[in-house]
Known about the structure:
- There is one protein chain.
- The chain has helices at 3-26, 64-75, 93-103, 116-120, 125-133, and strands at residues 51-54, 80-84, 110-113, 137-140, 146-149, 152-155.
- By secondary structure, the protein is α/β, with parallel strands linked by helices.
- The chain has a four-stranded parallel beta sheet with strand order 1-2-3-4.
- Helix 3 runs parallel beside helix 5.
- The protein starts with a helix and ends with a strand.
Amino acid sequence: MTRRKFLGAVAVVGAGSAAGLEGFLVEPHSLEVTHHKVGREDPSGGPTLRIVQITDLHLEDVNDHVVRVAEAVNRSLPDIVTITGDSVNGARGLGALGDFLDLLASGPPKYAIYGNWERWAGIDPGDLGATYEARNGRLLVNESVVHQQGGAEVLI
């Protein structure tokens, strides 16, 4: 193998390793907050809802990152919190999920759905649902709900 081919192979392996490390070391602790206006502008100043969506928590315990997520949610002053799957990595994450939900403001209702991680781990829907219900939440399993608040409504 020539020196040039060897260095090229090292560069390719190094780049792949760096990307893999980023996925395991950096991304699980990243927090991305974005803001979007959805729907039509109501010139009369009609009712609005502030919805916070949380996804891919993959909880096993409550650490600094999880506390930062809860603080960001609370700073947003949501009317509704949605948790769109992969909230836990396995059954031991149910306690951490309860602890995380306890960090959130108790007022806004929380709506959650299963993710593939909950399914793969065999999380019992009753146990997961009870974790949410104890904290002003509801697990939606193959269903939807119309949330109404202050003259505004949204299908979840």
